[in-house]
Each structure stands twice: as C-alpha cells, then as structure tokens.
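Tutorial handout. Part one gives the primary structure; part two gives the three-dimensional structure as tokens.
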Amino acid sequence: MIIESPPHCVRGLPFWFLPGPSGTWSQRHRDCGGATFLYSRRLIAVGQPHGLLLSRAAEEPWERIGGMCKEPSVGNMVGGLAFGQPVTWGYSSFIRALLGGALVELYVEAGMLWFVVLPLSYWLQGATLLLCLEITRRAAKMKLPMISLSRLLCGFSTQGDLLRYGGRVDEEKRPIVVWNCTRRCNLRCVHCYASAGGDAQEQEMTTTAAKAFLQDLADFKVPVLLFSGGEPLLREDLFELAGFAKGLGIRTAISTNGTLITPEVADMIAAVGFAEVGISVDGVRENNDQLRGREGAFDAAVEGIRRCVARGQRASLRFTISRSNYRDIPAILDLVEAESVDRVCFYHLAYSGRGRTMVDEDLNHEDTRGVVELICQRTVEWHRRGLKKEVLMVGNHADGVYAYLKVKREQPERADEVMGLLRMNGGNNSGVRIAAVDSVGEVHADQFWWHYSFGNVSRRRFGDIWMDTSDPLMHGLKDRKGLLKGRCARCQYLDICNGNLRVRAEAVYGDVWAEDPACYLTDEEIGSKGKAEESGRQKLSSAYHPG
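Part two.
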C-alpha cells in the first residue's frame, strides 16, 4: 500500500513513500530484483518486497531504469536489489553508524538520487524515511558550475542535474572542489589556466599531507572532488589518493588530457571507480596538437577515450572554445557521436594563467552566439534521434539565459520550467559552491583564480578558510550583487547568472566587479536598453581590487 498520496513534500522536494508490497510482480520485476515501480510525469517511487526505495527523479524512460536493474553490482547488493554503483557523498556512513549496520545505501544514477533501505519494521522504515528526506534535502543544495543544454532544451536529465538544479540556496554552502594535485604536465597548452608543465613544485603536497587534506574535505562535507592538474596521471599516488577520498565518502572525478591512458591506466581508472573521466580535446588533429603543444596528442587522447568507454567508465570530452578552433566544433560533435561518448563539455575561454594573454583569441559576441546556437541545434537533434548525449556549457552563464530565451520562443510551454531550473542553479558560484586548491595547498575562488589565495590548507583547515568572510574578495563573491557594475548591474537576469566570470572582468578592466566582457547578450535581451547606470550603488570600501 502507499502510505500517502500525493507525495510528501520536504522544502519543496516531492517524494512518495512506498512500503514493500508482497506478491504480484512480473518477469520484468524479477529481472530487477523483485522491485515494483510507480510512475508519474516527474517522479518515480520504487519499492521491493523487503524494503523501500525512494527517488527524487526526473523524467526517465522505463528502458533506462531497466538497463540499470539488469546489471547489478554483486558487491553492492542491498536487500537483494542494486542500482548501479553507490555514491556515498559521506552520508551513507552516517546512516550506517546511526542505525547499527549497513541499512541504507545512497545511489546516484541516471539523474536520480536513490535510497535503499533493508528489511525493517514499518515504523523503523518511517523513521528512516525522515532521515532519507533530510539527507536528500542536503544533497539537493549542491550545485555544479555548468549549464546543461540537454536538460534545458530537451528535458533530458542525468545524474549531475541533481547537483546542478537540485534545490534552493541556504546557509550550508559546501563547495565542489577542484584539486590541481600537480603542476606537472606532459603537454603545454596555450590556454592553460594553471601554466602547467615541467617538474613538480618543491612544495607539492606529499601523500601524507594530501590525505590529511582529503580528510579535512570530508569533515567539511565536501560532496565532490575533481582531480586536475597539470596532468593528474603524472602524480604517482593518484589512485591511492582517489581510493582514499572515495573511502571517506567523497565522490571523485578526474580531468586529464587523456594521452597517458594506456590499457593498464584505463584498468586502474575503472578499478578506482571515478564518477567521470573528463578528457580534453581542443580541435581536430593538427589544430589540437598545435594548441596542446605536442604532435600526436589528438590521436592519443581519442585512444584514451576509447579505452575508458570500452571498460564501461563514464567519460566526457572537454573542449575550450577559442578563435583558433571554433570551426572544428561540428567535427568534434561528430566525434562525440562516433565514439559513443555520453557527455561533452564546451568551455568558454577564461583569461587566466597562460590564457591571460589570450584575450584577443576569444570569439567576438556574434561568433560566440553562432557557436552556442550550433551546439544547441545539435543537442536538440541528438535528442530527437534518441541519442542520450549530455551537452554542457561552462564558463559563461549567459548561455543559460540564451537557452531560456530560445525555449521561450520555440517551446513556450516549458519556459517557466527552464527559468525555475536556472534559478535553482543560481549562476556563477565561484567562491560559493566551487572552489580550487592548487598543488601546494593554496585555496582559490575557482580554478581560474590562481593569482589570489585565501590561505593554505597546510596552515589552516579548508573549511575555516572557506567560511572566513573577513577576506574582502571572499566576502564579495559570496554576496556580490550589490558590487557589480555596468551591464551586469542592470541585467534583469542577474539572479540566474550572478555576474558571470569575475576573473574575466578583472583581466580586461582591472576591476573584479566590472561587467563580464564575454557576455554576448544584447541590451534588449538583458533589459538594460535605455537604462542609466544606477547611481549611488553601494560599494564596500574594503572590496578587493587588484593593486
């Protein structure tokens, strides 16, 4: 029986509570461990004969769910039912300790958050439900600094959307952390924000120091850690550290140039269980090799992608857009389709590191619009053809507004839904829900702020550094709307963009609160046509400005 319908609502998040019914399940149900399913347009609740399973789900077809059921992980079977691989994010350990055994597992798969509860009396199931809902509420507050065109334009949801569009902002802001664990690199990319290359820095964190840092992140309840570089695969203890982080309940991903992914390395990547391997390709063959500073880099990266895909490892292709390579984007999209890559991320150029000298290499606004429209069209085409490809835009939250305006014109019935998703995402989250730590332990607002540090994790705990708003830049980034100037201050979409990438404004205007020069939206689109600059805009006397 269903205890309550319509579903429970906790801080606006809807759920159904379904105690495990007895009897009457079909062959399909037996394939899925005896699970029974209830459907609605926006929710899926799943129960099994000996327990319950809750989901805050987006719209997903039966075939996707069924595919998950048919490939259970024996080591992660809970009450006779397993869905994909568990991702604890630190919360499962808490529940196991509280209830005295491996009673609950937390899963993320196909854009859904799953809780599996073992055989319990109904009254204890009800008590556990309250815990599940509270933990789901916490998980829903996490954000990713990306715009999902596949979600906004097509309604196609994936596991990252729970983080990207999962809930409202409140007091407990725990960032996703990019850890540039080494500055060493076997390539020399012209746009590298880390200016990577050569040997390791003398002060690079040791294995012992790195584990203390990871424990610090877990204590602060950091949900996701991205191993980046430099080239992280050059760090000899990478897999040891990744396994250690995962054991602490931190979800891990890795960003690599892919050229070092031999069959043996691909096996180790799959064994660790990274949630994702992001592999950078910045053009087709010679163009990529020139931008990345090594002949053969393109072929090696594509081979790395193939090795990951062949092992069932989730892989994404990452492409940084510039004047030198934007004409290769159609071919890159063809490559994504041909190589069965499920996810592609397009990064707008950030003027940081070696890329700080590449302002003139960025596209003009007209060309940027053309590129974004091209990517939008391919995203919709893939969806219409039934190809489940996740397409993300990174580094320019004007893309979200562009997608909203496109939906408003072409799918007006979905405009409110898309606007709601963008409001939940909140726009740029540098200094709020995205953080970076470099190889020597300096803490930055994001991976593009290497020239400004809030402190070092060897001298102070990460959480203490991150929550300390006595630093004027940290204070400003966490509450920036009253500081922004120019078109950003007058924009009607400020609440879904949040001023875009501040490091670009600083690089061009020498003022971190100036308008983002890469915003390609027109004055008419942002609602500032004919408006004068607001006079008397509040400015903090201690606000950060470069010296």
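Part three, for discussion. The CA atoms of residues 174 and 462 lie 11 Å apart. Residues 365-384 form the longest helix (20 residues).
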